[in-house]
Amino acid sequence: MNVTRRDFFGLAAAAGVASAGCGRVARRLAGGQQPDAPLPQGDVRPIARFLNRVAFGAAPGDPARVASIGISAYVDDALMAKESEDPALQVRLASLDVLNLDALELSDLKEEAVVRQLQQAALLRAVYGRNQLHERMVDLWTNHFNIYSRKHYGAYYMAVDQLKVVRAHALGKFPDLVRASAHSPAMLNYLDNQVNRKGVPNENYARELMELHTLGVHGGYTQHDVREVARCLTGWTIETRFLHPKGRFRFDPGLHDNASPKRVLGTTIPTVKDPAAEVEWNGQRIPAGQLAGERVLDILANHPATAHFVASKLCRYFLGGEKREWVDRVASIYRQTGGEIRSMLRPILASQELLDSPPIAKRPFDFVASGMRALGAETDAGPAVLQHLDQMGQGLYEWPMPDGYPDKVSAWTGSMLARWNFAFEVATIGLRGTQVDWAAYGGGVDPSDRAIERFLASKRLPNRGLYKRLNEHVQGMEPERALRETAALCLASPEFQWR
After folding, report:
1. pLDDT tens digits along 82-117
2. How far apart are CA 224 and CA 444, in angstroms?
3. How many whole angstroms separate alpha carbon 44 and alpha carbon 404?
């Protein structure tokens, strides 16, 4: 007996996927008789919840490792992110041009190929990276400092941005992350600061730097502050001169507004005698005119509103909400440590709150990566997989707005049919470039325990409707087919859409 795609969708819908925000579609496919199911809660093992928050879900062997060393020791290891990467992952990444060529050399490739390789590298790292917390933080900061790769050939700058900004500082200090982003040609290009010059300041980057990167929209800045920050950042551009290394950060003294002092959030930033003259700053020699922008970054990174804004984002990402006591606690750590990300994360990750807090909806990237890890799949994360991500609405580095892909459940309610397509194809038909070793799960299958526990990392299935329908569905199937369809339905189930 083989299930058709429509049979599968009907079964998935009947099993209660409506709860994940696709109620009308689910009810139509199931014949209009299915009530919405409640959010999954209370039935997930603590280790499963922990791995869904700290990592991209559980890969084979992960729950046993956490159980053996304990959550506290796991958190300590995860924060250090010192695990050497799997050689197989390194070989896969080494074959990608975007990780081996600079922006100028990449210009020989078509933009589409560059974007696809960037997406492939991100998914491979999320699925196979041994430092899973680091990969989680890369996901968070990539969206916090979002860059649309299709604007002004931005794709060619993205690999360096990912390496030297996001990945380099993902677990470091937030002020260093902000400063690295401010010097990133990818960011300057995306938010138009390469055309920000005296007399005609472009406020685009200045506004997003305060609203989305540091203070937050309610951070207490005014339009006057936006204009003054833009003036401070005049001359921050990208190298394009003949016989110079193109595509790198450059301060152009000739474009800098040094006509009068600026005033940012109550602090006066003076003019300099000669914007081109070199001065000592933090152990480096930089043009004096660049100091205005560097001082702005110091003001913003050390502002109390930034501590609160970053704390809110970390709490929402890991705890699923912004409880005041937690935001205040994490913001206090930010102020005490100068923005140490590891110090802010430690109490969050080791807390009972992380295990007990409400479910968080998986964005499509999270859903696909955790699905691959749950299956123990061997994948090249190539076009066949990336096409599914596109259909779910999250082609990486393709969100055009500077606020990054949304984390609200309502933003992803339209992705359920595409998720079911992915679950159906990866488990029952097979995706080009992706293999699952079904024999590794052993012969035979009992959907009520081992298979469900493996795929959902849950001791029991809270949705009794799915349990009953699943048993009826696999009755009489040959073992591997039953296992494949159990896996597909588990990936499509409400429980797998949340972390």
Report:
1. 999 999 999 999 999 999 998 889 999 999 999 999
2. 69
3. 29
Q: 8 and 417 in contact (C-beta within 8 Å)?
A: no
CA angle centred on 178, ends 172 and 181, rounded to 5°:
105
Those residues whose C-beta lies under 8 Å from the C-beta of residue 400, and which sit 6 or more positions away, are 148, 150, 151
Tens-digit pLDDT profile for residues 142-199: 999 999 999 988 999 999 999 999 999 999 999 999 999 999 999 999 999 999 999 9
d(CA 311, CA 342): 12
Threshold 0.85, pTM exceeds: yes
- The per-residue pLDDT for range 51-68, each reduced to its tens digit, is 999 999 999 889 889 999
Residue 321 three-state SS: coil
For residue 284, the cross-strand partners are: 281
- Angle 318-488-486 (CA atoms, 0-180°, nearest 5)? 110
Please, are residues 457 and 51 in contact by the beta-carbon 8 Å criterion? yes
Instruction: Give the per-residue pLDDT at 31.
Output: 43
Assess contact for 487 and 451: CB atoms under 8 A. yes
Q: Which among 28, 65, 49, 173 has a CA at the least distance from the CA of 456?
A: 49
Which residues face 142 on adjacent strands? none
In 3D space, the residue among 287, 255, 252, 293 whose CA is nearest the CA of residue 273 turns out to be 287
How far is the C-alpha of 270 from the C-alpha of 204, rounded, in Å?
A: 23
11 has a pLDDT exceeding 70: no
Residue 308 corresponds to which tokens in the numbers above? Answer: 């609160």
Contacts of 431 (CB under 8 A, 6+ apart): 379, 384, 385, 388, 425
- In total, the chain counts a number of residues equal to 499
Q: Give the separation between CA 352 and CA 45, rounded to whole angstroms.
A: 13
Rounded Cα gap, residues 328 and 307, in angstroms: 9
Please, what is the angle between helix 341-349 and helix 324-337, to 10°? 150
Element of type H or E holding 444 = none
- Report the half-sphere exposure of 139 (CA within 13 A, side-chain side): 31
Under 8 Å between Cβ of 347 and 333: yes
Whether the per-residue pLDDT at 464 is higher than 80: the answer is: no
